[in-house]
């Protein structure tokens, strides 16, 4: 009986916010964004493109400002500048002897700085804080439409080209050897990356979007050796964090993007420690029982070869 | 002539005056001329850093040569790739063994070039994948993640991918490193079978001992082609000393002058 009484406030606490339309809307928008980011996240983590993701997310800033100034959809400007930055990175890398990380560092900070200069010079009602950290609770209908369009295009491209993208991440040389256009696949993945960042711009903001692109895939990678499972785990952890994070940000009146990423990071830490096979504890216990395990494995290997 | 060659069952590789320069301006390979005869097993031999991988990557089209021409069965490399003429078995350290993919899916990637853009495998694709796995005795391991395999099994998995691709030309880059003697022997048996079936096989290796047991022809390489011909002809003490020992500068100069004269 007392359990029931205690449960009622909790129930109220859970349901009460849902009567606000803006919050329901924020929750499903961020769940959608979490879904899109998590799908791409698997490819980005396997390809080792986290830094590229960071670069693209920063490079969209001037695009957003220019778009507002010219009165065109922010998604268009953001995509053009994000994708343009990746082309610039490719060009500088092929023309100089610099290593890729240096080129990425130079190009994206350049784009970002240019954006900051524009924001402070061009008169507009853009709130720099919202671009940097997202503002899904105050998202406008127009922005939701743009988010949806960018997200649906991204998901469609990933779904249709998933096998080639995976081959490109795994073995680009083989892709070339069987006559696939690897340049085209490279730019496909980059443009999808730019589109995903456009999708997540309103929810997470450009500073935190990289977490949405790297953490879900990393969590999943520690939990499985199968790509389809990886995709499922990545999406589940991301959507969970986005929904709960948005919810908590309302309750505790904190940044939405911030609480989503804090939750994702918590999930990551738990996974890193407790993952059944690749977690720190599992690795440690494997080491402890090492002599026997190593021997057994050795026997197995020699049997396989026989 | 070119079309004739494409309809016959075996294909050769011709490398004509090939030079490759890396972006740090280091010349990796210069004025390389050689022919990999159709229907042979040819060994590509040279010390580390001799340009073996560079020549391999140029033949596979992974590198853009700064000069020269390569033809496979009379076709330029890109055309040959589009026609699925060439299969490549990579070195062990070129592969990310932690990638979440199993053996069956790796071998299926050999068939992508035959599929439509969505890469949906047909019954034929599945059959060929299973047959290829059986040929290398890997059927039982098809559901294993690739990192769980032993050194020899890893090689066999990628050899199965090359078989599934049905390329007439197969290039193997250092296939015997990290492989035990038993597996090496079985792989060599399989390569000899494939030659029987009309495949042209190019194997790069720095393991001199096994060359004479299975290579019909040998190409000796150190920055340029030093010798090429049947293994018996090529494997002379003098040639090997020239390839692996300190290269006498005079012979180098002569070589390059000769090839310049030919041009």
How would you describe this structure to a colleague?
The complex is a heterodimer of chains A (306) and B (263). Helices cover 84% and strands 0% of the residues of chain A. With 306 residues, chain A is mostly helical. Chain A has a single domain, classed as ABC transporter involved in vitamin B12 uptake, BtuC, CATH 1.10.3470.10. By secondary structure, chain B is α/β, with parallel strands linked by helices. In chain B, 39% of the residues lie in helices and 23% in strands. Chain B is built from 11 helices and 10 strands. In chain B, strands 6-7-8-3-9-10 form a 6-stranded mixed beta sheet, sandwiched between helices. In chain B, a hairpin with a 2-residue loop joins strand 4 and strand 5. Chain B is globular and about 50 Å long. Chain B starts with a helix and ends with a helix. The chains are: A mainly alpha (306), B alpha/beta (263). Chains A and B meet through helix 8, helix 9, helix 11 and helix 14 of A and helix 3, strand 6 and helix 6 of B.
Set down the secondary structure blueprint:
The complex is a heterodimer of chains A (306) and B (263).
Chain A: H1 2-15, H2 21-47, H3 50-59, H4 61-70, H5 74-95, H6 100-121, H7 128-133, H8 141-170, H9 172-177, H10 182-221, H11 227-252, H12 256-274, H13 280-288, H14 290-305
Helix pairs in contact in A: 2-8, 2-10, 2-11, 3-5, 3-6, 3-10, 4-5, 4-6, 5-6, 5-10, 8-10, 10-11, 10-12, 11-12
Chain B: H1 2-7, E1 13-21, E2 27-36, E3 41-45, H2 52-59, E4 67-72, E5 75-76, H3 77-82, E6 86-89, H4 103-108, H5 123-135, H6 151-165, E7 169-173, H7 181-196, E8 200-205, H8 208-214, E9 217-222, E10 224-230, H9 231-234, H10 237-244, H11 249-262
Parallel strand pairs in B: 3-8, 3-9, 6-7, 7-8
Antiparallel strand pairs in B: 1-2, 1-4, 4-5, 9-10
Helix pairs in contact in B: 5-6
């Amino acid at each position: 009986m007392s359990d029931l009484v205690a449960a009622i406030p909790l129930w109220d606490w859970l349901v009460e916010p849902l009567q606000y339309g803006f919050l329901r809307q924020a929750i499903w928008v961020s769940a959608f964004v979490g879904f899109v980011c998590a799908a791409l996240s698997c490819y980005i983590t396997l390809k080792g493109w986290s830094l590229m993701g960071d670069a693209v997310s920063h490079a969209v800033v001037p695009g957003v400002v220019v778009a507002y100034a010219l009165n065109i959809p922010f998604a268009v400007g953001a995509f053009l500048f994000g994708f343009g930055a990746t082309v610039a990175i490719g060009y500088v890398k092929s023309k100089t002897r610099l290593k890729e990380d240096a080129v990425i560092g130079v190009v994206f900070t350049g784009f970002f700085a240019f954006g900051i200069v524009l924001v402070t010079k061009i008169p507009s009602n853009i709130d720099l804080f919202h671009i940097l950290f997202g503002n899904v609770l105050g998202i406008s209908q127009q922005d939701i439409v743009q988010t949806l369009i960018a997200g649906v295009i991204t998901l469609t491209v990933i779904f249709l080209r998933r096998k080639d993208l995976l081959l490109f991440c795994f073995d680009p040389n083989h892709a070339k050897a069987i006559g696939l256009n690897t340049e085209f696949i490279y730019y496909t993945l980059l443009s999808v990356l730019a589109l995903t960042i456009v999708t997540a711009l309103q929810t997470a903001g450009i500073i935190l979007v990289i977490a949405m692109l790297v953490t879900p895939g990393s969590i999943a990678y520690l939990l499985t050796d199968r790509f389809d499972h990886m995709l499922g785990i990545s999406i589940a952890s991301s959507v969970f964090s986005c929904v709960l994070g948005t919810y908590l940000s309302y309750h505790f009146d904190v940044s939405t993007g911030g609480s989503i990423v804090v939750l994702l990071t918590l999930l990551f830490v738990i996974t890193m420690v407790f993952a059944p096979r690749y977690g720190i504890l599992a690795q440690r216990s494997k080491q402890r029982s090492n002599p026997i395990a190593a021997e057994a494995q050795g026997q197995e290997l020699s049997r396989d070869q026989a | 002539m070119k079309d004739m060659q494409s309809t016959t069952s075996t294909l050769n590789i011709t490398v004509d005056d090939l030079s490759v320069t890396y972006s740090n301006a280091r010349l990796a390979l210069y004025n390389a001329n050689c022919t990999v005869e159709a229907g042979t097993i040819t060994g590509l031999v040279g010390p580390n850093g001799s340009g073996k991988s560079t020549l391999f990557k140029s033949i596979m089209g992974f590198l853009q040569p700064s000069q020269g021409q390569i033809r496979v069965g009379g076709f330029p490399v890109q055309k040959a790739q589009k026609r699925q003429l060439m299969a490549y078995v990579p070195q062990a350290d070129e592969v990310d063994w932690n990638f979440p993919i199993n053996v069956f899916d790796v071998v299926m990637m050999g068939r992508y070039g035959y599929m439509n853009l969505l890469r949906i495998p047909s019954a034929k694709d599945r059959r060929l994948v299973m047959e290829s796995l059986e040929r290398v005795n890997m059927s039982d391991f098809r559901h294993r993640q690739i990192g769980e395999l032993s050194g020899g099994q890893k090689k066999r998995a990628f050899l199965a991918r090359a078989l599934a691709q049905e390329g007439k030309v197969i290039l193997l880059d250092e296939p015997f490193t990290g492989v035990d003697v038993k597996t090496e022997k079985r792989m060599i048996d399989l390569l000899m079978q494939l030659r029987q079936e009309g495949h042209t096989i190019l194997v790069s290796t720095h393991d001199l001992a096994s060359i004479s047991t299975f290579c019909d022809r040998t190409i000796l390489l150190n920055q340029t082609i030093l010798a090429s011909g049947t293994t018996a002809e090529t494997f002379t003490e003098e040639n090997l000393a020239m390839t692996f020992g300190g290269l006498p500068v005079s012979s180098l100069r002569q070589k390059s002058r000769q090839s310049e004269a030919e041009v």
